[in-house]
Amino acid sequence: MQSQPIKRVVAGALAAAAVITVVSVGTPAGAITLPAPQNPPTNSADALAQYRAAAQEAEKLNEDKLKAQDDYNAKQADLAKANGDLAAANQRLQAAQAEAAKFQVVVDQFADASFVSGAQMSRMSALLTGTSAQDFLDRSSALAVLAEDKNRAMQSYLDAVNAAAAAAAQATDARNRAQAATDQSAQLLNDLNARAAALQAQLDQLRQLSSRLTAADKAAQSDTGGAAPGLPAPTSAAQTAVNVALGKRGSAYVWGATGPTTFDCSGLTQYAYGKAGISLPRTSSAQSTFGKAVPRSELQVGDLVFFGSPVHHVGIYIGDGKMVHAPDTGDVVKISPLQNDYSGARRVAY
């Protein structure tokens, strides 16, 4: 019979494992000395200025919505991974429990066979009960084999118990991560819906303001900014991105659009650099952490330039203090001076 301390330890480990259940979140070449930055007009009596101010606010809200969407998608991926880990851990747990149960039968048999009529099986008992020296050797050899089998069975049993305990711990961790991801996903979804509602309200305001725009105002919005400086980029990838973006001048700004015919600000930069073989994150805030930071005094053609704090707008620097960008709703992809709320630059092709 197996000793009670061993059985209690094993039974406790297996019981703890069994409670886990599945849950289903120097200035370099090409650097340009910049002129004083400019902004669009801000006279509140100017209908176009009011429209542009409202459109810029809508762009910020759109950026917030895109970021909230990215956060939600990332948390959904976390949830899927946690549930996958949980299912795998429970499969390992069930297999380990079955293995432990199998070897427990063997261990119990050895334990029961260790005592026969009150006499422990040992080489001494073999000597005392043997009828000859050869009989003793034969019995000793058999006992050695039995002891080896017993030790092997016991080790296999303990390995299975330890594997069950490890799988139980992994399942507990995965279950906790899945629950946390579920809760956080719900919060992020609420945030996403709130930001989408705020953006829609701003778009409604923009539609009202658009009725006040004159033909001259609308022509100003359609202006593509004149000729590009024509300065070369330092790398072929950067040059490709610049050329692609410049080739999209006149394309309409549309929230959430990533090309090939309409764009928002980060959609244009992502599209242009995608054609150069460089994959950028979706939002301007995420792009503002991509690549390496560049001081304003060292800007080169092809660098991403960012605006706002937190970042809400991005363009591609083309030299001479100018950028190509998708400004905001009602506007088109164009060349513009860098704006007053410049907040940094990143080099993604080097």
From TrEMBL:
GO MF assignments: cysteine-type peptidase activity
NlpC/P60 domain span: 235-350
Keywords for this protein: Coiled coil, Hydrolase, Protease, Thiol protease
Example GO biological process: proteolysis
Keyword Flavoprotein on entry: no
Coiled coil: 44-106, 164-216
Highest rank taxon of the organism: Bacteria
Family as reported in the entry's similarity comment: Belongs to the peptidase C40 family.
Protein name: Cell wall-associated hydrolase, NlpC family
